[in-house]
Amino acid sequence: MKRCTPAAAAASFSLILAVPALLLHLGADAAMAVFAAAAVSTAAAMALGVPWGEIEETILRVVADCIPTLLIVILVGMLVGIWMAGGTVPALLYYGVRLIAPGTLVPLAFLLCLLCAEFTGTSFGSVAAMGLTMAGIAATTSVPPALVAGAVVSGAWFGDKMSPLSDTTNLASAVSRVPLYDHIGSMAYTSLPAAALSLVLFTLAGLGWSGGELDTGQAQTICAVLEAHFNLSPLLLLPAVLVLLVSLWRLPAVLGLGLTVAASAVFALVSQPIGLTALLDAAAKGFSISTGSALVDRMLCRGGIASMADLLVTCILAGVMGGVIAAAGILDVLAREVLLRFIHRRGPLIAAALVYCYLVSFLTAGSQTVAIIMTQQTFAAAFDRLDIHPKVLSRTLEDAGTLSAPIVPWGPSAGFVMSTLGCSLEYIPYCWFIFLVPLFSLLCAATGLGVWDREGRPLRRRQKIFVRLF
Fold it and tell me: Which run of H or E residues covers position 88?
């Protein structure tokens, strides 16, 4: 096997990153862009002398790690289809249109999705349930859909990062060997200030549209159509409440979503005039209805496993690409022989880990699992050498690895957001929480606030005040 030199690693890195970016710029499908990048990374790995058997073994291991995510995507697709057919989403839309004003829509989208994701531990589920409702309400106002989508994503990924039920939160805690709630407490130093500032920004943005009125004609049409085709009642909100109850029982995400899907199916059969076969079709192929209103049809004809097919393929291909890159050791060489060789202070090391984790995420199509694991393995020894507690590294893994997923244009998370909310990549600049967190992470690295030595002693005494407050 050839030794991957820093020059070869840098060239391979640049080429692999350039391929999906170029193809997406040319208008190629996201799955094909990731497939092309996986093919280029495979060619680069073999050119570096990595045996095919080793590449294949690493691919299988990384793709296996993606199975829980794939199951969540499948269950979310089923849940959206069932909630459409069973009247849960129509009820959320109906009452939302009647109660939410344009000026409060944006901050509420952020807060409600934040709470939903915090309780459930799943960003995808939060986007599919609460986010979809907020996007539907936005269609009746003059508020830009991209702004609402940015607020939805910001809130949803807060929960994906801070919830003790989240798979990424548990993963970062486990690989760094940090107790779960110590890890979450460490993340408070970057996430809570970023969330507070994001809420201020989303509130100001919402107030900027407070003068805009609901399109009353459109709103009345939506409500009339929903009343005509569904048995509407506040009781239809119970399946959404069930998602929160399942989280209070601290069930794993896959099991909790599975139980929610089953309970929602029973509830739909009881509350709506729909047969079992039609409900199963909605879960598999998506809900379909012709109401006579093109706007309502666009809102409701969603969901189903079939709607997630492209996303599932992209997830698998992203896992393949991540496995090949891991087998080739390209990023490992760049970090160990370029970055870590010249870093001898705590602040620059934390900043380097943050940047490296971002690079891994973008190079592997937003694979949170690969970004978290590879960055921890690369930087753990250096953090230990400079006497930095592992919970600083575990926090950094999530500040970059978890939060970067929905802003990788060719990644499956961005594809999920666009397909679920019916928006374009224009939502990314409005993901203010996701951009603010790394800034606070760098601030902590520069000041020593929220940084501890290996014994857990704070490097700055003032942070004890922060701990008492939160």
Answer: helix 88-99
User: Could you tell me the pTM of the whole model?
Assistant: 0.68
Alpha carbon of 362 to those of 81, 401, 470: distances in Å? Answer: 31, 9, 32
Instruction: Give per-residue pLDDT as tens, 218-240.
Output: 667 778 888 888 888 888 888 87
pLDDT band at 470 (very low <50, low <70, confident <90, very high): very low
* Buried b / exposed e along 143-168 (16+ C-beta atoms within 10 A): bbbbbbbbbbbbbbbbbbbbbebbbb
Q: Which are the contacts of 286, defined by CB distance < 8 A and separation ≥ 6?
A: 77, 80, 81, 84, 301, 302, 303, 304, 306, 307
Please say whether the beta carbons of 94 and 226 come within 8 A. yes
Measuring CA to CA, which residue among 244, 10, 225, 219 is closest to residue 129? 244
Q: Give per-residue pLDDT as tens, 160-171.
A: 888 766 777 877
Place of tokens 């350039």: 18
Closest CA to 359 of 321, 318, 401: 401
The Cα–Cα gap between 264 and 274 comes to 13
Partners of 458 in the β-ladder: 452
Average of per-residue pLDDT across 247-267: 80
For the chain, what are the domain ranges? 6-67+309-469, 76-307
Here the tokens at position 396 are 């950094």
Q: To the nearest 5 percent, what fractions of the chain are helix, strand and coil?
A: 80, 0, 20
**Confidence (pLDDT) at 20:** 76
Contacts of 337 (CB under 8 A, 6+ apart): 6, 9
Q: Kindly indicate the confidence band of residue 250, based on its pLDDT and cuts at 50, 70 and 90.
A: low
Rg (CA), the chain: 23
Provide mean pLDDT across the span 335-345. 73
CA nearest 79: which of 128, 135, 134?
A: 128
390 within 8 A of 380, measured Cβ to Cβ: yes
Q: What is the pLDDT of residue 218?
A: 66
| Positive or negative torsion for Cα 155, 207, 196, 410 | positive
Q: What are phi and psi of 68, to 5 degrees?
A: -60, -40
| 315 and 73 Cβ atoms separated by less than 8 Å | yes
Q: Where are the alpha helices (DSSP H) in 163-215?
A: 167-175, 180-208
